[in-house]
Amino acid sequence: MALKTEEMVLNMGPQHPSTHGVLRLELVIEGEIIKNVTPHIGYLHRCFEKHCEVMTYPQIIPYTDRMDYLASMCNEFGYVVAVERLMGIEVPERVEYIRVIMAELQRIASHLVAIGTYGADIGAFTPFLFCFRDREKILNLFEITCGARLLYNYIWIGGVMHDLHPDFIRLTKEFIKEFRPNLKELNDLLTFNQIFIDRTANVGILPAETAINYGITGPNLRASGVNWDLRINDPYSIYDRFDFKIPVGKGENGTVGDCWNRYYMRILEMEESLKIVEQAINQIPDGDVSSAIPKRVKPPAGQIYSRVENPRGELGYFIVSDGSVNPTRIKVRAPSFVNMVVFGELCKGHMVADVVAILGSIDIVLGEIDR
Amino acid sequence: MIYDWLYNLTGSEMIAIGIQSLLPLYLFILPFALVAVLLERKVAAHMQDRLGPMRVGYHGLLQTIADILKLLQKEDTVAADIDKKFFDLSPLLVFAGSYAAFAAIPFSGAFMGSNIDLGIIYIIAVTGLVVAGILMGGWASNNKYSLLGAMRAAAQIISFEIPTLLIVITVIMITGTMNLYTMSEWQTGYFWNWLIMGGPDLGITKILFIPLMVISFLIIFLSTLAEVNRTPFDIPEAESEIVAGYHTEYSGMKFAMFFLAEYANMFAVSAIVSALFFGGYQSPFGYLGNLLEISWLIPIEQFFWFTAKGVFFVLVQMWLRWTLPRFRVDQLMSFCWKYLIPISFVILLLVGLITVL
Q1: Residue of A23, A34, A117, A129 to mutate, interface with B, max B Cβ within 10 Å
Q2: Contact between residue A55 and residue A319 where contact means Cβ atoms under 8 Å apart
Q3: Which single residue of A6, B54, B316, B342 has CA 20 to 30 Å from A343?
Q4: pLDDT the model gives residue B3
Q5: In this structure, what are the phi and psi dihedrals at residue A10, rounded to the nearest 5 degrees?
Q6: Side-chain-side CA neighbours of residue B91 (13 Å)
Q7: Over the range B283-296, which residues count as b (16 or more CB within 10 Å of their CB) and which as e?
C-alpha cells in the first residue's frame, strides 16, 4: 500500500535567524526536499526613489547610505559619480584617491559581513565574530574620518565632506598589517574546512549562461567563471591606475558557480582590495578636497545612467534632470535585487539546509532590495 | 559504600535507596549544569576574542544563577492549538531520560546511584526515552520548524545508536561484563591498564587492541556526540535553518528543562566514554590515599578523577562546537551508515577473533 504523502508549505521569515533581514520565503517542501521557493519582499520599502523627487541632489546622499547599509560608502560613490558626470564636474586628485580608499575599505567590510554571516548560516559561529572583529577596525577608520560608523554622508558631489584625519594613513597601514594574518586564519578555520566544503561545494550551481541571462553581477557572476568587473570593464574614478586582478571562479572544490566558489570569490576580492588600498595610500597626493564642490547643484536638463562596482554587483543610478534643483526621476539598479531573482531556481531539488547556504552565498541586503 | 551508611542511618531500605538515587541529581547534575552553562559561555567567548559574561559577580560567576531566576519568573507562553498534554510531558520525558542515565554511572568506587548488572545497556536503553520526548515535543508544538527538528532528531539519534551499541558490544566482549562498576574496577591500576591502552592483560592481545580501541573510542565519541545533538551534529536544533528545532515553542522553565537535559546529557556521554575507555573513576597515577594510608581519601580522589575526565570530554565537545560548521542531514546519515557502522562491524569482528584466539 502506498503511503499518502503531501507537500508542506514552510513559511521562512520575515522573522528568521538567517534570512539576512526581513525577507519571507515560502518554501514548498516534500520532507526536506525543496519543490518550490517564492520569495516575498517589500517589508523594508521606504519609497527611496519617489522620495528623491522632492529633495535636492545633495540631500539624496544620506538616503543612498540606507540602501545597501553594509556598503554605504560605495552607494554614495556611485550616486556622486552619476551626478558629477551629469554636471561635468572634474574632482581633484586627492578626492579621487580618498574615494577609492573608502570604497575599497568598505568592500572589505562588506565582504567580511557576508563571509561571517555565511559561516554562521552554515553553523560555524566563531568565524562570524572573527570577521566582525576585523570589520570593527574598518569602522573605526571610518569613524575617525567622518564621525559615523555606518551611514556616513561623507562623499559629496564634487568632493568629500572634509579631509582625512592626520592619523588615517598610519592607522590604515596598521590595519592592513593586522588583517592579512587574520585572513589566513579565517581561511584555515572556515574556507578550507572539510565540513564547510562538503556543505557548500556542488550546492546551488549557477552556470555562466544562466547568470548572464538573469543579469547577475558582482562576485556571484565572477564565481560562475565570467570575468566582468566594472572597475576594469567600465572604469570610473581612477581605478585604471591600480594594479589588481579580478578573481574568477574556477570550481576548486566542486563545480564552477557553486556556493563555495561564490564564497571564495569574496575572500579573494578582499585580498585584491587590500592591494588597491595599499597602493592608494602610498600614492595619495596632497591637495584640497572641497575646491570642486559646487555651491548649487543644478545639473543641466538631461539624463544619465552611471554604474559602479559595489561589493554585491553592479549598482546603477539612472537620473533624469529637468534643470531644476530636484531630480525628476531616480531609478536605482540594485544588485541584490537582481541577484535575488535567480534564487528560486538555484534552490529547487536541494534540502532545507541548502536554502540557507544558497541565500547566504548570494549575499543579499534587504535594504537594497526593497529600497 | 554510601548505601550501607544510609541504610544504617535510616534503618530502611526504601529511604536509603530513595536518597541514594536522588543524590546524583542534587549533588551533581544541577550544580554541573550551572557550571557547564557558564563554562560553555566562557569557553566560547575566549575562543572568539571576547570576554563573555562579566557583570554578574566576579567575571560573571553568578550569571547562570541570574539566568535561572529570569527563567523562573518568565511567563509560560503557550502557542495556540498545541497538544497540551504532550507539550507538557515532553520536557519531563527528555529530562527524565537523561537523568535516569546517571543512576548507573559509577562516580567513584564508593558511590553510584544504582549498581545494575546491565549498566551500560540500561543507560543506552533509558536515553532512548529522550527520542520519544523530543518527537512528542516537536509534534505537540504545532509548529513546522519543531516538527522538522523533531524528525531530524529522531532519525539522527536512532541511527547513531547503532555504532554506539556495536562499540559497546565490542567492549563487553573484551571486559566480559556489562556492569560499569566492574568495568572500571577491571581497568584498575595505572593509565596503561585503561582499555584505550589495550586493557590490563599483558601480552600480544594488548598490542593488537591498542589501534582498534583508539578507533573504537573515536567512533563512540562521534556517535555519542551526534546523540546529544552537539555541533557538528546539531542538526535538530540548527538555529540558522529551523530556528530552535523541537524546542522552538518552549519558554520559561520548560525550556530550562531541555537546556538542563542537554548539559546533563553532555556529561553523561562523556562519563560513558571515560568509563569504557579511560578507566572510569580510576586514577592514572595511583592514589594519594594509598600513599598516606587514609582510606576515606580514595573514594574522594576517585570522584575527582571521574569528574575531571568527564569535564575534559565536555570541554572537547565545547571546543568542537565553537570550531566546526554543521553537517547537512543527508551527509550526517551517510557518515553514519557508510562509515561508522561498517567500521564498527569490522572492529567487532576483529576483536571477536582476537578474543577467541
Answers
A1: A129
A2: no
A3: A6
A4: 66
A5: -110, 125
A6: 18
A7: beeebebeeeeeee
> Three cell numbers at A149?
560608523
Q: Are A192 and A260 in contact (CB under 8 A)?
A: no
Task: Please give the ipTM for the structure prediction.
Answer: 0.76
What is the separation of C-alpha B257 from the centre of its chain, rounded to a whole number of angstroms?
16
Residue A315 DSSP SS3: strand
Cis ω for the linkage preceding B232 (within 30 of 0): yes
A44-370 maps to CATH 3.30.70.2860: no
User: How far is it, in rounded angstroms, from Cα B153 to Cα B131?
Assistant: 7
Local structure of A37: helix, strand or coil: strand
d(C-alpha B215, C-alpha B217), whole Å: 5
Residue with cell 560548521: B325
Whether the CB of A192 is below 8 Å from some CB of chain B: the reply is: no
Dihedral in degrees, nearest 10, Cα atoms B335, B336, B342, B346: 110
pTM (two decimals): 0.84
State whether residue A124 sits within 8 Å of chain B by CB: yes
User: Residue B334: enclosing H or E segment and its boundaries?
Assistant: helix B329-334
Using a CB–CB cut-off of 8 Å, the residues of B that contact A are 44, 47-50, 144-145, 148, 231-232, 234-235, 238-243, 322-331
CA distance A125 to B231: 11
Q: Name the strands in the sheet holding A302-310, side by side, starting at the edge strand that comes first in the sequence.
A: A302-310, A313-321, A327-333
**Closest Cα in chain B to A11:** B144
Residue B137 neighbours by CB under 8 Å, 6+ apart: B86, B87, B90, B91, B94, B146, B150, B246, B247, B250, B258
Residue to mutate among B241, B243, B329, with most A CBs inside 10 A, is B241
List the single residue in B with minimal CA-CA distance to A31. B148
Domain ranges of chain A: 44-370
Question: Which pLDDT tens digit goes with each residue over A21-68?
Answer: 788 888 888 877 888 888 888 888 888 888 888 888 888 888 888 888
Q: Tens digits of per-residue pLDDT, A55-84?
A: 888 888 888 888 888 888 889 898 998 988
What residues have CB less than 8 Å from A84, skipping those under 6 apart?
A91, A157, A158
Report the candidate in A20, A351, A340 with the shortest Cα–Cα distance to residue A206.
A340
